[in-house]
Amino acid sequence: MLTISTVRLLVLGSILRRGISHGYAVLSDITSWHADTWTNVKPGSVYHALNKLESQGMIKSINSEVNVKLGPSRKEYTVTKKGETEFEALLESALVSIDIQQLSAGVAFMDMLPRQKVIALLQQRRIEIERSIGFLKSLPTEERPSEPSMHPELVGIWVGYVENELATTERILAHVQAGKYVFKSEEEK
Questions:
Q1: pTM for this model (two decimals)
Q2: Digit-coded pLDDT (tens) for 151-183
Q3: Range of the domain at 52
């Protein structure tokens, strides 16, 4: 299930990448990123997020100076300082999240943080996943389970899923530590 924070992260990230953007451009960005394949973001949730972010002072609207086909001016947005702070908090939260949609959005924008910050967040995620694996492996199981949570196959599904999350986190972490990608404050020369 898509969380509100994931939509907020995608919307703020789109506007930050562009500098100034209108709602349709934000939706176009999210669509061109095929975010619908790694989140459940819908057009209505993007426009709802724009309205909510504006009412909360995270973005501010400015009237476009370009009239499209003599129509009304287009409402464009820019991210406020408060919105930048929110974006960074959402991004950091996404990079340690166990929710795959949040993590996906976090990875999509991780280059907007300093490399060392991303490394620290991924290391934190790895530690939490390792704890989860230890807990799951300690759960009691029964060959003839007296309740569903004690079914060995069910516990096996959980362990397998979380072990895969660990492997994914370690792979991303290794790439970032090896110098892959360009991060905030690293200028390409």
A1: 0.86
A2: 999 999 999 999 999 999 999 999 999 999 999
A3: 4-107
